[in-house]
Structures are given as structure tokens and as C-alpha cells.
Amino acid sequence: MEILLVEDSPQDAELAAIAIRRAAFGGVLTHVPDGERALEWLRRRDADSDGNELPLPGLVLLDLKLPRVDGLAVLRQVKSTPRLKRLPVVVFTSSREERDLACAFELGANAYVVKPVEFNAYCDAIAQILGFWTRLSEETSYTTFP
Amino acid sequence: MSPDGFEALFRRSPLPTAVLGREDHLIRDVNDAALDYFGFKREEVIGRTSTMLDLWEDDSTRERILGKLAREGRATDVECRMRRRSGALVDAVMSIEPLQAGDEEWLIVQVQVVTTLVEAQRHEARLSRFYSALSEIGEAVARIDDEQALLQAACEICVERVGNNVAFALIADPIPRIVASAGVAAAAYVPGVRPEMDYQEACRPFAHVFAEGTSWVSNDVPRDPVLFQWSERLAAAGTLSLSVIPLFRHGRVRGAISLHHPEVQSYDPETLDLLSRIGRVLSHAFDAIEADRERRDAQDALASLNRVLDERVRRRTQELEAVVSELDAFSYSVAHDLRAPLRAVNAYAQLASEQIEADPAVARDYLDKAARSVEELSRLIDDLLAFARAGRRPLDLSSVDLDSLVGQVVEELKLLHPGAAIDRQPLPAATGDVFLLRRVFHNLIDNALKFSAGKEAAQVEIFATEGPVYHVRDNGVGFDPGRVAKLFGVFERFHDPGRFQGTGVGLAIVRRIVERHGGSIRGDSAPDRGATFSFTLGGQLPTRLQVQQVESAASL
Q1: ipTM field
Q2: Which of A22, A116, B289, B370 is the most buried (most CB within 10 A)?
Q3: Which of B479, B491, B496, B507 to mutate to test the interface with A (most CBs of A within 10 A)?
């Protein structure tokens, strides 16, 4: 199991890493600091230079406000690429804006979670995301490839 | 017959009748019919002879009649040809009867006017020409909606159809001047007549028409005393009859048409009536043209006012939308970006307190991070305040020496970026708020230095082009032109926070200041190709093409 964390703030990335570790996540956590590199990384997984498909992460934690390519643009790209669109993408952001929420779901986000300011609540939110999406993704892969 | 009875008969007779001395042939009295017919005033004829008045075509006629009178004591129904005061010859039948009253002996002379068939036909033909002229002018009125063109058409019709040799039109606005003419050009036609100068003094007809608003006619130009010296000149140039018809606007005389005819007695009462009708038709047409023009002008004015209002509403709406969307972006950014360091402070404090006993060194590390997050929060707040100030601070406008201002900014920034290559061209002075303009150049040059810092041979250039348009260019990492719309937003960072420091407020402040000076700004770039920021302090930037030409020229 692998998680891709797309997060520009170094502090937020560190906090997310701590929270994920606390949620007893045993897989690989990959962090990219902007949208452009997120897409580059995902494309490389979609097909390498020889055209081979590599394993996709089980979950993408996507911040919205990012340098270079913003979160919603990343989401649009992912959800309009044949293989990548199956990826569970959880938007994880400070934004409580209605339009961000609406836009994210419109583009096919699998969940939208507002980052809590209080650290314990923050860790709980991460734990719930992981608890839900990592289990679901295991079941999904089981049923998709019996 | 009683003398009273004779008197009444004499006065009222429609036949021209005169009473002459038996021996001296001096005219003692005439009736009105005679005065009308021959065109004299009473005082001109009383006490004079027919010879003195030049009434005979030739002496032989006179001698023939006098001979008959001497032989027979009377002359009855003698056909003769006589001359009117105007010089026109008329056929008449004359009868002379002696009359004795007391000691006095008189001759009663009576003339029967013979209107020949030819004369009647000629009159008919003239009337018909005037009628056709009137109807053609009516057509012209329907066709032409310009005053001057209409007058020109009317003059041409009067010359071509009525047989006038000259027609010209004057319009007083307020000095009368010739605006249309046909036939021989009016000015060349009467040397020395300049209606615009002379109409009041020298040329009585115009003075009459302008003062009285009625037509003026002379059917015998060479003998008309009113015309003074002009009668000779007009006659020499071929005008024997002259009529001047007033043109009106809103009931007031505004101009006149002057018609010149090469024959005497051209304008009889009937033709004059037609001419004044032509004048009235043209006058009505002028009023209609003016009303139409006023209506069109009013419509145009209304339409242009509407356009101005539309444009103003559109611009205001645009400005308002821009303000609203800026505010929107601003509050969004504040909500998003101020929360991030708050969250970090909370988290590091929590982590520190968890570790404080187990591992004090780790706890201290967390506390340091919390402190750094607080500093970041403080920086964000400072920048937000600067941004708000850039928008709210009243503009203190003065003439700003941009050369020395940019010189100071560059010196300051060189302390922070030692060894930076900054090429500074002379800049024209500008009118603006010196504090805010310093901020503009500081932020732009600081950005240029920051984003070119990693480069070998990093270079920052500051220059101005025609307009003036001010440019700050670097050869640094540049930015994705696809995201240019977000370039000037609050807290928009285009690069990794780890690699380039900054809160993302600098360019938002720059744009706000530039726009408050009435100017505009934009950035041109491609990743790793450097960036150029160009702005004006009033007015729009030239189109993209022009700037690119300027840039490529500047980079040669």
C-alpha cells in the first residue's frame, strides 16, 4: 500500500507524515511539493518509458492550493486519464469554500476533508481517511482481480 | 352732362383718359387708369406734354393724329403705338374730343388698350413657365434634404425654365452671402456688388426684402431711380427686370432669391404671385429640413449619451466585479493561508508537550518549529497589512525622480544580494506617490533577484520604453504563462516554498499600487526563460505584439 501526499507546506507535510504514522499505516508515503510534480510522478506510474504499467498508489491526499499546477487541475488531469481515474483521491485542504467542495466533487474527488486546526482532530481525520480508504482499496483490488 | 357727372365718369373710367389744354397740349389732369397703364405718378405728368413724357413711338404717329384733329376738329379711333414709362411699346387706339367749359377749351384724350393675341399668348407662355418651375422646385424639395443644394437647384430651375439670365440666393447667417447661383455668376455679373457687404446701403432691393419681408420688383431696371448707379450696370449686363423674393425661416426673413430677366415688364402680378409661392415653398422646406436635422441631432445625441452611459455602466460593473473578485480571492487566501501556520503552531505545541519528558531534545525541536510558524504567521500578517495599506493609503501625488528612487532601491537590495548584476537604464520622471512607487520597484526588483539567484550570470535589467512603459526583467526561473491569471493574486506562490521564500503578496501589492495610479501591469515569461514585468503609471499597456518587439529589440 502506497500513499501519495501532495502538499506544498513543509510543516503540513511533516504533520501529515506524523499523523499517518500514528494511524499505524504500514505502507509507503511519497510526498511531492507541487501539482506539476504530482502529475509527473503519477504519469510515470501510469506507464514507464517502456510502456509498462507500474502499481498505482492506494490513495492520493491532495492539497488544493499548490504552486505551478493547483490541486483542482491535478484532480481534473487524474480523473480524465483512463487508468488513473480509478485512483481514490481525497482532497485534504484548509479551504472551507463551498465552490472548492462543489468543484472537487464535480471533477470526481472521492472525498473532501477540511484540515482541522487542532492537532488531535487533525490526526483523527487522517486516521479516518486511512481507515476507510485503505480498507476499501484492498477490497476493491480483491474484487477487481479475483 | 354736368361737370360733376363728367368728373365722376373721368375718374372711374377703366380707360386711360387725360385732359389737355386746347392750345398748349399740356396735361391738366389724368385718371388712375392712365397712370397705371403708362406707369407714371401723377406729379410726373401734370403740366407736361406727351412729347415731354416720350409717349410716342415716333413723331409721325403724333403728327398724323394732330393733323386729323386740325382737319376734323376731333380724332376718333386712330391706331397708334405708344411707349410706357418702362420703355415697353404698346398698341393702342386713341380718340381725342374737344370740350368747352365756360371760357376754357380742353381736349379729352382717351386710349383703348389693345391686348393683341400675341401679347396674350406671350403672357400665357410666361405663366406656364413659372408654373412648371414651381412644380419642379416642388419635386426638388421632396428630393433634396440640404439647404444649399436645394437653393442651387431652385436657382438653376429659375434660369433654365423661366428664362431668367441670372438667379442667385443669399442666406443671412447673420451676414448675407451668396450660397447658390445659376446663369452668369452673380459676383462677376455685377462688378462691385457684394451682397454680404453692400446689401443694406448700396443695393436697396435686398435692404427692402430683409426689412419688410416682402418681394421687391423692378420691371424697368434702366429707369428705376431706386437702383441708383446699379441700374446702369445691371442694364449694361442685360438685366431689364429684377425681382427679389424673401426666404423665411420660422417666419423671419433669412435670405432672398434674386432673379434677373433680360426683358422689361417680366414680373406682372401673376408671375410675382408665383415667385412668392416659390419663396414660400423653399421657406417651408428649410423649416422642414431644420426640424428634421434637429430631430436627427437629438436622436444622435441621445444615442451617443446612451452609449456613454452604457460604457460607463459596463466599466463600473467591470471595476466592481474586479474589486469583488479581488476581495473574494483575498478572503479565501486569508482563510486558507493564515490557518496553515496556526495549525502548525498547534501541532508542534502538542507534539512538544507529548515529548517533553520522554525526549526533551525532540520537544525543544518541536517548540522551535512552533516558534518559526509563529514568525511565518507574523510575516503573513505584515504583508497583508502592507497589501491593505497599498489599497487604502491616500495617494500623495508629486513628481517623482524614478532614477534616484530606483537607484536607492537597488543599493538596498544589493546588500541582501551581494554580487547581483543589475543593469539600470535611465528612467523618465513620473507623477505618483513616492512611498508606493518605491514599494513597486522594491518588490519587482526583489522578485527578479530572488528568482534569478540560482542562475549562472544572473542578470536583472530595469528600463523604460515609449509610453512610458517601465520594465523589470530577469533571466531567472520564470513562470508558467498558463497561470498568468493568478500571478497577481494574494498568497499565490508559483514556486516551492522551500526553494524561494515569500508569502505570495508582493505582486498583489505591486498591481494594486499600479492600478491605483491609473496604470496597468503584466508579466511575460516561460519556465526557465526569465520573466519581464511591464507596467504603466497611467493608461493601458501597448498590445502584446508591441511589447514583444520592444523586448526583442532591447535584447539585441
Answers
A1: 0.78
A2: B370
A3: B496
The 8-class DSSP code of residue A53 comes to P
- Residue indicated by cell numbers 387706339: B93
A126 to chain B: which residues are within 8 Å by CB?
Answer: none
pLDDT at B387 over 60: yes
Q: How far is CA B545 from the centre of its chain?
A: 37
Pick from B348, B491, B498: which is nearest to A33 by CB?
B498
- Name the average pLDDT for chain A: 84
Beta bridge partners of B257: B169, B245
**Helix/strand/coil (H, E, C) string of B154-212?**
HHHHHHHHHCCCEEEEEEECCCEEEEEEEECCHHHHCCCCCHHHHCCCCCHHHHHHHHH
Chain B residues touching A120 at Cβ < 8 A: 350
- Give the closest-approach CA distance of B343 to chain A in angstroms: 4
Coil, strand, or helix at residue B343? Answer: helix
pLDDT band at B2 (very low <50, low <70, confident <90, very high): low
The amino acid at residue A15 is L
Instruction: Decide if A117 and B496 are in contact by the 8 Å CB cutoff.
Output: no
CB atoms near residue A87 (< 10 Å) = 21
Chain B residues inside the 8 Å CB shell of A17:
none
- B164's grid cell: 431668367
Among positive and negative, which fits the CA dihedral A18, A23, A25, A31? negative
Tell me the C-alpha distance between A66 and B368, whole Å: 25
Test the B interface: residue of A11, A31, A32, A97 with most B CBs within 10 Å: A11
The burial of B314, by beta-carbon neighbours within 10 Å (0-12 exposed, 13-18 middle, 19 or more buried), is given as exposed
* B458-B461-B465 Cα angle (round to 5): 155
* Rounded Cα–Cα distance for residues A86 and A64 (Å): 20
Length of chain A: 146
Determine, for residues B343 and A117 on separate chains, whether the beta-carbon distance falls below 8 Å: yes
Q: Which of B502, B503, B454, B497 is nearest to B478 (CA)?
A: B454
pTM: 0.47
The predicted pLDDT at position B550 comes to 42
DSSP 8-state class, residue B489: S
Tracing cell 512610458 back to the chain, one arrives at: B468
Three cell numbers, residue B63: 403728327
Q: Please name every residue paired with B533 in a beta bridge, in sequence order, or none if there are none.
A: B472, B523
Chain B environment of A21 (Cβ under 8 Å): none
- With 90 as the cut, is the pLDDT of residue B176 above it? no
Helix and strand element counts for chain B (H, E): 16, 17
- Residue B338: what residue type? L
Q: For residue A13, give the chain B residue with the closest CA.
A: B344
The answer to whether the CB of B449 falls within 8 A of the CB of B506 is no
Higher-confidence position of B190 and B110: B110
Q: Across the A/B interface, how many CB contacts are shorter than 8 Å?
A: 71
Tell me what the pLDDT averaged over chain B comes to.
82
Q: What is the mean pLDDT of residues A93-109?
A: 88
CB contact under 8 A, A122 and B347: yes
Give the containing element (helix H, strand E) for A6. Answer: strand A2-6
Q: Which of B57, B15, B8 is nearest to B32 (CA)?
A: B15
CA dist., res. B269 & res. B272, Å (int): 5
Mean pLDDT of B134-138: 86
CB contact at 8 A, B88 and B94: no
pLDDT single digits (tens) A23-58: 887 788 889 988 888 999 998 888 777 777 788 888
How many CB atoms are closer than 10 A to CB A108? 14
Q: Which of B339, B487, B500 to mutate to test the interface with A (most CBs of A within 10 A)?
A: B339
CA distance B355 to chain A (A): 13
Q: What is the pLDDT of residue B116?
A: 56
- pLDDT (0 to 100) of residue B540: 75
